[in-house]
Amino acid sequence: MKYAIGIDIGGTNIRAALVDEELRVVRKEKRSSMDGLRENLIEMTDSLYGPEVVGVGVAVAGLVDREERVVKKSPNLEQVEGLDFGGLPGRAFSLPVFIENDANAHALGESKAGAGRDFRDFILLTLGTGIGGGVVYRGRLLDVAAELGHITVETGGVSCPCGNSGCLESYASGRAVVNAVVSEIEAGRETMLSECCDGNLYRITPLHIFEYALEGDNLAREVLKNAGRYLGVGIASLVNIFSPRAVLIGGGLANAWDILVEEAKREARRRAFDELIEKVEIIPAELSDDAGVVGAASLVFDGLMKQ
Amino acid sequence: MKYAIGIDIGGTNIRAALVDEELRVVRKEKRSSMDGLRENLIEMTDSLYGPEVVGVGVAVAGLVDREERVVKKSPNLEQVEGLDFGGLPGRAFSLPVFIENDANAHALGESKAGAGRDFRDFILLTLGTGIGGGVVYRGRLLDVAAELGHITVETGGVSCPCGNSGCLESYASGRAVVNAVVSEIEAGRETMLSECCDGNLYRITPLHIFEYALEGDNLAREVLKNAGRYLGVGIASLVNIFSPRAVLIGGGLANAWDILVEEAKREARRRAFDELIEKVEIIPAELSDDAGVVGAASLVFDGLMKQ
Question: Model's pTM, two decimal places?
Answer without folding.
Answer: 0.90
